[in-house]
Amino acid sequence: MTFNMIFRQQWVAFVTLAAVLLSFSVGAGAKSTLTGAGASFPYPLYSKWISEYQKTNTGVAINYQSIGSGAGVRQVLQGTVDFGASDSPMTSEEHQKAKAPVVQLPMTIGAIVVSYNIPGLTQELSLDQELLSEIFLGTITKWDDPKILAINPDLKLELTSLKKRHKFISTVHRSDGSGTTAVFTNYLSDISENWKAKVGAAKSVKWPVGLGAKGNEGVTGMIKNTPGSIGYVELTYALTNNLKKAKLKNKAGEFVSPEIVNIQKAVSENIPDDFILSLLNSEKEGAYPIVAFTYLLVPSDMPTGKLSVLAPFIKWSLEEGQGLSKQLHYVPLPTSISEKVVNKVSELQQL
After folding, report:
1. Per residue in 4-43, pLDDT tens?
2. Do 66 and 192 share a domain, yes or no?
3. DSSP-assigned states of every residue in 76-124
4. Do 119 and 260 share a domain, yes or no?
5. What's the pLDDT at 4?
6. Which of 14, 21, 214, 323 is deepest in the core (most CB within 10 A)?
7. CB 68 within 8 A of CB 39
8. What is residue 295's three-state secondary structure?
9. Domain contains 88
């Protein structure tokens, strides 16, 4: 055997060993990565869950982007993310576009609040069903409208002191496809035949009036920076940004604040097998009227390796993670529902 042949064999052996050692080194430090995107409604809670979960599961990296329910559904259907999130269930048309069935798993319960910015106003605003729909239809345009003062008689003196430009109402809505919008417009359609006929309900609608902003974050910022404005956001965004929240008249005829105790009263434990259940406009006394589940969207054909990473996180969120919900102003799922969802995740793992 020549010197060149011996050298070549030793070099090949060295390169092979180096490749094995490099592979071992990379594998030992590599993380299992999942990407998700969708609803801004649960984003504060999902971010907290991910942060806490990764503290004890250091080999997992989960990246969730708040881009709106509509965009989240599209990315799931296009296969550009591992999982999605939406505050409103997927439509039959969206299901038909899916390459494989998409399982919708309720993860928590939240409320949509009507927030407003009326400079100098210290009283809490009350709105009934007619007022709310007419404001967003643009048929009521001033804060000192007689219909508003009839329900809020103590506001008259405070409203008269407003600057002229601040007396005009500026409505704020989502500019992106939004599950929050779908829930809010479904509620308006439920309480107002006029709204139902003229605008309807969907993730995106043709708003009669108002300013658009992207995400719950964008709507929150616009309300905060626009005197005379009113809009709809998820409760956590209103609380963390010190936005004022209106009392809404519920189906029982009570003006109810969006507090956790009142949101809980709207929750039903009788959920069907597909987990699709509306919590809007509950007939229960004391119930806040705009309450909804928010869903995680999981493709049923998710690769086994990806599902083996996602499933434990979902189960942790439904068990240990529910304890973090109230801290961020969400309502934990009733145990009967969370157990049912955990069982569904186990079924997915067996497919």
Report:
1. 444 344 444 443 333 333 333 333 345 789 999 999 999 9
2. no
3. HHHTSSSEEEESSPPPHHHHHH-SS-EEEEEEEEEEEEEEEE-TT--SP
4. yes
5. 46
6. 214
7. yes
8. strand
9. yes
Q: Looking up tokens 């969120």, which residue turns up?
A: 317
Domain that holds residue 97: 34-108+292-350
Residues 298 and 245 in one domain: no
Residue 262 tokens, joined = 């009142």
CATH number, domain with residue 41: 3.40.190.10
What is the 3-state secondary structure of the chain? CCHHHHHHHHHHHHHHHHHHHHHHHHHHHCCEEEEEEECCCCHHHHHHHHHHHHHHCCCEEEEEEECCHHHHHHHHHHCCCCEEEECCCCCHHHHHHCCCCEEEEEEEEEEEEEEEECCCCCCCCEECHHHHHHHHHCCCCECCCHHHHHHCHHHHHHHHCCCHHHHECEEEEECCCCHHHHHHHHHHHHHCHHHHHHCCCCCCCCCCCCEEECHHHHHHHHHHHCCCEEEEEEHHHHHHCCCEECEEECCCCCEECCCHHHHHCCCCCCCCCCCCCCCCCCCCCCCCCCEEEEEEEEECCCCHHHHHHHHHHHHHHHCCHHHHCHHHCCECCCHHHHHHHHHHHHHHHHC
The model carries a pTM of 0.88
| Cβ atoms within 10 Å of 213's Cβ, excluding its own | 21
- Secondary structure class of 206 (helix, strand, coil): coil
Residues 259 and 119 in one domain: yes
Stretch 134-140: mean pLDDT: 98
pLDDT in tens, 278-332: 999 999 999 999 999 999 999 999 999 999 999 999 999 999 999 999 999 999 9
Residue 145 CB partners (closer than 8 Å, separation 6+): none
- Identify the sign of the CA torsion 14, 19, 20, 22: positive
Distance separating alpha carbons of residues 100 and 114, to the nearest angstrom: 37
CA distances from 62 to 29, 35, 347 (A): 16, 6, 22
State the average pLDDT over residues 197-208.
97
The identity of residue 235, as a single letter, is L
